[in-house]
Write a structure and sequence with these properties.
With about 140 residues, this protein is α+β, with helices and mostly antiparallel strands. About 35% of the residues lie in helices and about 30% in strands. It has six helices and eight strands. The protein is globular.
Length: about 140
């Protein structure tokens, strides 16, 4: 089995992309015939998550001020775009379409990530550092 480390690059006040959401995203890519996908947000996000996240962002003025003109879906799209595996970008383009009505993620995977994800023997580990500095590694299944 070939294993790859996947992580979100950059600095964020809040990480909104969960390991489960990344696992669902990689599964969508694995079952796709093309590297360009349009994925309904409801297929990636847990039920009610976008509404919950919107309330959290509204309630925390410091975070809300650092995210002007962005909603939960655009924040998620930005973090999907920042995913890397083994120090290489996973996506060439990630956009959210129609965020106010029927949100969808329009993604274009990088050629290498698409090939690696489609391999039957590939497995990803989500890697991040906790608030206490502890390194955490989660297998995405």
């Amino acid at each position: 089995m070939k294993e790859y480390r996947i992580r979100i690059t950059g600095k964020y006040d809040v990480i909104v992309l969960s390991p489960k959401m990344i696992a669902v995203l990689t599964e969508k890519i694995r079952s796709s015939d093309t590297k360009e996908l349009v994925i309904p947000a409801e297929e990636i996000l847990p039920q009610g998550y976008a509404q919950y996240l919107a309330r959290v962002l509204e309630a925390d003025m410091e975070i809300a001020e650092s995210l002007p003109n962005r909603n939960a879906y655009t924040l998620i799209a930005e973090q999907i775009k920042k995913l890397q595996f083994n120090e290489k970008d996973c996506f060439e383009r990630v956009e959210v379409t129609d965020p106010d009505r029927i949100p969808q993620f329009d993604v274009d995977t990088s050629e290498e990530f698409f090939i690696v994800t489609r391999q039957e023997n590939s497995r990803f580990h989500y890697s991040f550092q906790s608030g206490t500095g502890e390194k955490i590694n989660i297998v995405l299944d």
